[in-house]
Each structure stands twice: as C-alpha cells, then as structure tokens.
Amino acid sequence: MEVFYDRVNEIKVLSQIEKQAEHNACFTVLSGRRRIGKTELLKHFIKDKKAAYLFTSRSSEKSLCTVWQKILEESIGLKIFGNIENLSDLFEQVMIFSQSNHFTLIIDEFQDIEYVNKSFFSQMQNIWDSHKSSSTINLIVCGSVYSLMTKIFQDEKEPLFGRATHSIHLKPFTPSVVKTILKDFNPNYTNEDLLCLYMLSGGVAKYIFLLMYAGAVTKEKMIDSVCNMASPFLIDGRDILISEIGKDYGVYFSILQAIATGHTTQSEIDSIVQKNTGAYLQNLQKVFGIIGQIRPLLSKPESRNARWQITDEYMRFYFRFIYTNQYLVELGSYDILKQFILRDYETFTGKTLEQYFTAKILEEETVSKIGGWWDKKSQNEIDIIATNDLEKSCKIYEVKRQSKKINLDQVRTKSEAFMENLDGYTCKTAGLSMEDM
User: Fold this and answer.
1) Of 135, 142, 380, 413, which shows the fewest CB atoms inside 10 Å?
2) Rounded CA gap, 122 and 96, in Å?
3) Ramachandran region of residue 82, left (φ > 0), alpha (ψ -120 to 50) or beta?
4) pLDDT for the residue numbered 421
5) Measured distance between the N- and C-terminal CA atoms of the chain, rounded to whole angstroms
C-alpha cells in the first residue's frame, strides 16, 4: 500500500477553496510538471468528499461523454436521462446540477480536451459565465503539459483567460520530505544515497517512488536501476519534452545538452549549436518552463552577465548522461553507461549539492533573495547568498562535497566585493558540505 507524503499546505489551500465553493462557484487550475504528483494529491483530497474525478482520454467526444456521464451518476448522483454526445451539453448539465448540489469536480489532463473537441473551451466559457453566479461547484482542472495549460489560462486571446478563480502550481517535495521518504525505505541511508536520490528526482514524486518501490534505496542500487533496459529514466526526459515542444525538438535538445555539459552563456550555446539561440532560450524558459536565466544576486535585470541553467534536476541528469550517451542506450551497453555516470558523478553532483542546499535554506529560513554571485570576469564566485531584507542580514555559503575543501578565509575575501552592494547589512559566512545535508 502506497503512503501519501506531505502536501500539507496544498491540502489546506484546497480545503479553503472547497469551503468557499459552498457559497460561490470556484474554478481552480492545478499545474505542475509531469510526474510531480498532481493526480495523487487530488485523489487524496477528495477521498472523503462528494466528488467526481474525470480523466480526459483522447477518444471520440461521444465515447468520452458516455464514460464521464456514468462516473458523474455513480460519484455525485447526477442522473441524466438519455445519452449525451457532446461535452458542452454534459458540462451544462453539471453546472445546472451544481445550483442545488455542492460537490467537487476534477477534470484531469484538461489540455487534452483540445484533441477531443477544439471548440469546447469557448463553449465552456459561455456555460461557466452563465451559471457560476448561482452555482456551488468546486471545479478543479489539472494538466501535465505546462505549455498548453499556460496557453489555455494565461493567454488573453484564449476563451478561458481570466476564468480561473484560483491557481496552484505544484512543486517538487522539499529536501526534508525527500529525507523522510528515503529514511522510511532505508533507515540506514547515507548522505551519498540522499544526494543521488536528489540528483535523479529533484524531489519529483514519481521518480522517488519508482526507485523506492524497486528497492533502489542506495546510491549503487539507484544507478543500477537507472542503467537498465526497462528503466523509465532512460526515456522519460525525451517523452516529456516532445509532449511539450512537439516534433521540432532538435535544436531545443541540442541547447539543453549544451547547458547540461557546462556551457551556460548564450555565446557558448550559440557556438555549439551554430546559430543564434536567443528565441529558443526564451521559449524554453517562458513557454516550456524547463530552464531559467540566472544573474549575479542583486545585479540589474538588464545585466548581460547572465547564465542559463536547467531548473529540473532529473532533466539536468538526463541531458548530461542519458541523451549525451544515447548511442549506448540504443546498443544496450548499460554497463558502459553506468561507468560514464560513475566516472563523472562527483563532479556533476557538486552542482546538485548547491541546488539541494538552496532548496533546504528556502525551506528552513526566512529569505528575501537567494542565489549565487560572480564578478564580470568570473574570478570571484560565491555559491549561495541568502538575504533577509527585513533584518538587513546576509548569509554567504561555500558548498563543497567534502568539508575539508572549504576555505572560509577565501569566502570572506570574495564576500567583501559582494557586500559593497549591501550597505548596512550584517554578513555571516559558512561552509556547507555533505555532512550538513
């Protein structure tokens, strides 16, 4: 039996919305990358409530209506005489029913309705606008394709723009939750096991449980599990991104491979891809939500001293080791793939450790801003800086896998240049290593 972990804040918010919907109709959009745990959260939330869960399959509109009509009758008692053959008529019946009945309705993989009936979103807008004032429905829609869900609800040209009353973006598990899960499955885990799990999952629920339920609870077993012909870790990166980007993914994949292998400025990326990648980088950031642009902390937004990074830990791992060595996967040379991963593991996980501690600091401390810093020549570089603008305090961290390699004197010297930007702030320096995980 699977155990449900965390999501305390999300359940609290969903409960508040559900209470509000007893008096006024609510329309909530739940988004988040694929495998993050959206469906599990919603099913857990409604398990003791009057609710219906509808999954959008890419079938004919008539057959989807037949399935949904049966679920609605069994789950919330909505009886419709005769068979409804189009989604707009079915949704109108739901909205009419909600005038005298309070319930939660979840529509999962909502973006796929476009494949069933492209005009439904416009029809849904009209029906919602006509009935919401007298309705007590708690409507929740969610979807896995970030770009499409963003377009449907945030593009002002789309019919459902501005219709959502609430929006929740589901994020990966925090470091403390990842530790709790690993400890439950391996009470004797080491911090190396924890770092490896974070490298492969970044806190994404599906990846964590794929490993845990397979018994891959140590670093060695996790790497073995990944380097296996049946491993979803070998294909999931490609599958997810093609669902986001579409068939013209070649240039995008080349860009992600370049970033994953350490080429983080646009000039470096342009040189490798052999074209101006500005528009592609913007799409990867704003449309697909896969990368982020980082600048030295407190630098101006227009600063050209910028770098690109893959914001998803699994995707970073995928493009560094799996996509780069795709020929080994195709040949079935999994042992050689494993050796490549192990050879570069310590170097690669140095950045993973920085990302882990950044998330840990955000979870445990009150932070106004957090990020790294480097000067224009990249001669002075600081791994993590966290500021608290209310207290006018600043903490500067050097991150190394081994504590003995941390030189706090050097950190203090580098911090002097940065602190020129923070007049009147107190500053503390510290080292963070695997011992502090």
Assistant:
1) 413
2) 18
3) left
4) 77
5) 29
pLDDT of residue 302: 78
The pLDDT assigned to 37 comes to: 95
Write down the pLDDT at residue 1.
58
Q: Positive or negative, the Cα torsion across 194, 200, 203, 208?
A: negative
Half-sphere CA count of 309, side-chain side, radius 13 A = 14
Longest Cα pair distance anywhere in the chain, in angstroms? 78
Q: Within 10 Å of residue 278's Cβ, how many Cβ atoms?
A: 11
Low-confidence ranges of the chain (pLDDT < 50): none
Residue 369, phi then psi, degrees to nearest 5: -140, 150
CA angle, 32 as apex, 294 and 15 as ends, to 5°?
125
Q: What is residue 377's predicted lDDT score, i.e. its pLDDT?
A: 76
pTM: 0.94
Q: How far apart are CA 194 and CA 178, in angstroms?
A: 8
**What does the DSSP assignment read for 284-311?**
IIIIS--EEEE--TT--TT-S--EEEE-
- Locus of tokens 């003791």: 48
Beta bridge partners of 371: 385
Compute CA distances 173 → 35, 80, 204, whole Å.
12, 41, 6
How high is the pLDDT of residue 233? 97
